[in-house]
């Protein structure tokens, strides 16, 4: 009898512990999201409310506007990005930095199954229409490069040129590229810290359950506030792999969107093949990669091989976060690429 009571007592404690994990929200000591002063909003027909920051052209002869597509999915525009790219307005470009739906200043969706690659692409298409430009220049970082490439497949006539930094894989993902090795001549090295280490440290049982529930049932087990705080904590750990040395990684700001992240990633497999469109593109493309970027080399290589008019530049002493690593070289390559476009336009006139 004593053994039986002990067994049922332990079983009851286990059930209580499991109930606590599943039903009691967790909190995380992470930076809180602070609305950026001067933020404006687009209300899109898709139902997305998009927060953005604009820096107007400093030229009396405005050039093609630039849209910056942040990483993630579920990332957000950081003040560091705006500060670093603001000088491009001196070249005559108006700059638009927007948080994709489900993150940052933009609204969270009630139905998380609405987060997808196609939804982000539709939002981007409508934003470009709202800007009113015949063409735009896209700068994409990480997941933003994937979104840019997918948009170009559908709207090849709306983009003048692209800058792709720390490229993620072209969709649908060619998984065989994971094993591709870079040529020794590029001098690429691995970062000190890995994403695997960050995931192991950050994920707890409740977070894993929330992830599994969302992927399986396409619904929220926990509030946006809780999961977004977890995502900030997770990204704080993953951010250690975005610099050559983990000690050099910037503090990750609050405001990222976890449901936007996991559901958009789940939709990667739903994207239709469109590489043939890219291979026929005359679009000038600048690919920027940090010397110790944590993204697989094969993904970068595919952009170079696929776009006929692409060029690769390696940013020395920088990881996936090019701004924190080597801002001067990062901006210099961008400015040279944009001036190249202006010089070509002058010659044609």
Topology readout:
Elements: H1 2-23, E1 40-43, E2 49-55, E3 66-69, H2 79-85, E4 95-98, H3 117-131, E5 136-141, H4 143-154, E6 159-165, H5 195-202, H6 205-217, H7 224-238, H8 258-266, H9 275-279, E7 285-290, H10 297-306, E8 310-315, H11 322-348
Helix pairs in contact: 3-4, 5-7
Give a written overview of the molecule.
The protein is an alpha/beta fold and 349 residues long. It has a domain at 39-191 and 271-348: Rossmann fold (3-Layer(aba) Sandwich). It contains 11 helices and 8 strands. The protein has helices at 2-23, 79-85, 117-131, 143-154, 195-202, 205-217, 224-238, 258-266, 275-279, 297-306, 322-348, and strands at residues 40-43, 49-55, 66-69, 95-98, 136-141, 159-165, 285-290, 310-315. The protein has an 8-stranded mixed sheet, sandwiched between helices. The N and C termini lie far apart (95 Å).
């Amino acid at each position: 009898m004593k053994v039986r009571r002990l067994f049922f007592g332990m079983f009851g404690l286990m059930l209580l512990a499991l109930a606590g994990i599943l039903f009691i929200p967790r909190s995380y000591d992470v930076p809180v999201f602070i609305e950026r002063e001067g933020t404006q909003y687009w209300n899109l027909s898709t139902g997305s409310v998009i927060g953005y920051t604009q820096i107007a052209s400093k030229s009396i002869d405005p050039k093609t506007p630039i849209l910056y597509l942040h990483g993630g999915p579920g990332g957000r525009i950081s003040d560091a990005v705006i500060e670093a790219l603001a000088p491009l307005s001196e070249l005559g470009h108006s700059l638009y930095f927007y948080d994709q739906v489900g993150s940052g200043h933009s609204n969270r969706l009630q139905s998380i199954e609405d987060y997808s690659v196609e939804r982000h692409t539709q939002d981007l298409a409508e934003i470009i229409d709202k800007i009113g430009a015949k063409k735009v220049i896209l700068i994409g970082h990480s997941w933003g490069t994937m979104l840019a490439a997918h948009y170009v497949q559908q709207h090849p006539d709306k983009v003048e040129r692209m800058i792709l930094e720390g490229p993620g894989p072209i969709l649908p993902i060619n998984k065989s590229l994971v094993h591709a090795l870079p040529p020794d001549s590029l001098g690429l090295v691995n970062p000190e810290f890995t994403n695997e280490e960050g995931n192991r440290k950050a994920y707890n049982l409740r977070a894993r359950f929330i992830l599994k529930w969302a992927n399986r049932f396409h619904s929220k087990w926990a509030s946006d506030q809780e999961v977004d705080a977890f995502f900030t904590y997770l990204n704080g750990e993953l951010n250690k792999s975005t610099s050559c040395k983990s000690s050099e990684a910037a503090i990750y700001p609050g405001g990222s969107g976890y449901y936007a992240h996991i559901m958009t990633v789940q939709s990667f497999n739903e994207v239709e093949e469109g590489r043939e469109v890219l291979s026929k593109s005359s679009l000038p493309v600048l690919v920027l990669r940090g010397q110790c970027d944590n993204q697989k080399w094969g993904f970068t290589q595919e952009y170079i091989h696929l776009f006929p008019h692409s060029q690769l530049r390696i940013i020395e002493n920088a990881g996936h976060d090019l701004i924190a690593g080597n801002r001067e070289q990062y901006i210099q390559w961008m400015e040279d690429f944009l001036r190249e476009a202006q010089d070509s336009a002058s010659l044609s006139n």
